[in-house]
Amino acid sequence: MNVHKGLKKSYLIISYAFEASLSNISSRRIIDLGCWEGNNTHKLARAGAHMADADLSENMIAHAIAEEQKPH
Questions:
Q1: Model's pTM, two decimal places?
Q2: Using CA atoms, how far apart are residues 28 and 19, in angstroms rounded to an integer?
Q3: What is residue 5's predicted lDDT score, i.e. its pLDDT?
């Protein structure tokens, strides 16, 4: 099996499960630890969660803040 294809399939399964879990989070308080660029933080917030995120990398936090300030 091609490792790249296996990883892509695993990512798609995880992504599908993550997207499916967004239906019951309205008004929940969630912290995204290790948020990287904040992609999941944005998805959770758009689904109605009250979000906070944290990352050890100041560059990733700066990137997440810049992304949040862009019009979506």
A1: 0.67
A2: 16
A3: 63
